Amino acid sequence: MSSTDLYEILGVSREASADEIKKSYRKLARQYHPDVNSDSGAEERFKEISVAYEILSDPQKRAQYDQYGTVGGPGGMGGGSPFGEGFGSINDLFEMFFGGGGGGAGRRQRRGEDIQRSVHQKLRDCLTEQHVELDIERRETCESCDGSRAEAGSKPETCRTCGGRGAVVQVRETLLGAMRTQTTCPTCRGDGVTVSDPCKSCRGTGFQYKKRRIDVSIPAGIDNGNLLQMSGMGHAAPGGGIPGDLYVQVTVEPDKQFQRDGSDLFVELPVHYTDLVSGATVDVPTLEGTEKLRIPAGTESHSQFTLRGHGLSRLRGHGKGNLHVRVKLYVPQKLNRQQKQLLSDLKEEDIKAEKKGGNFLYQLLNIR
Ligand SMILES: [Zn+2]
Ligand SMILES: [Zn+2]
């Protein structure tokens, strides 16, 4: 069994209640406990079941797992799992949640926390690459002790409680008998070392908070809700682990004139009756300025035309999207006497012409 889906391992749904999880765990644990099941693989399976239960029975860990466990973390651009490679095995998961290592791995390699920021921009800004400066305050490795937490001239000592392993084994009595579980060492909290003479600059934390101004480049064509991932720009990790990432969520404000679907834009264009009927070249607003559009004679209201390449840059792949122009009959809301006369004359002429042609439209025009 190579699944790292903890719900699958326990045979419960993602919505399972704490009770259901406990029940399923007990049933499976009884079935696979090495004392009662000598099948090859039973022990491994029992370990997986135990790890799955340890995580899913703890509401906080379960929430964390739900968020990042198998769905791959925040999606969007450059997304992927915030944990990098994703979970290779149940041991990776165990290590991540408990440190110390379920597979006897040594000290845990901890990862720095991520930083999340959001930026807003207008649709027009999506035409070109934008640069935004973000002020963040993040934990960085202390320069005085280089993260060792020990004052110059002293050294961290191997933790006496765990012997430097960062984890301790606990034996618990359960309905199945004694169960051994590994937990993070309470003395060194997983570091494997203790510091008797703490560094004065960082008060023995190994960190310093630094204000940094980060230049974020937002690619042209970015869409509302896209997430930019800047690897290693988050908080530093304890013990020289991998720093976290900086995630920048981009919000694109809706535009009054243009609608958007991916890299395509849509605009509605009021066009005069005579231009629709006789055909004309009209000016179409684009995000960049205006473009000429040729409307053929006899164009119906609400017809759609496409101006190729006048949309937004495609985030993935090349080129630009299109601008779709929907022409709409312009209807004046107030008429002077001359307009009224001209329209009335025009209508008379239209009816005459339609009658002559024996056209269907005649019937429509004749309805008073
Ligand atoms: Zn320090
Ligand atoms: Zn320890």
Euclidean distance between termini CA atoms:
79 Å
Output mean pLDDT.
83
Q: Look up the CATH topology of the largest domain.
A: Helix Hairpins
How many structural domains are formed by the residues?
4
- Give the helices and strands as they follow along the chain: HHHHHEEEEEEEEEEEHEEEEHH
Radius of gyration: 34 Å
CATH architecture of the largest domain: Orthogonal Bundle
Largest sheet: 4 strands, mixed
Specify the helix fraction band: 10-25%
Strand content: 25-35%
Given this structure, which CATH class of the largest domain is correct? Mainly Alpha
By DSSP, the count of extended strands is: 15
Multimeric state: single chain
Query: How many helices in DSSP terms?
Result: 8
Strands of the widest sheet, in order across it, are 10-11-15-14
The CATH superfamily of the largest domain bears the name DnaJ domain
Bound chemical compounds? zinc ion
- Structural class label: alpha+beta
> Tell me, what's the shape?
elongated
List low-confidence stretches: 70-88, 99-106
Features:
elongated; 368 residues; alpha+beta; four-stranded mixed sheet; Helix Hairpins; three-stranded mixed sheet; binds zinc ion
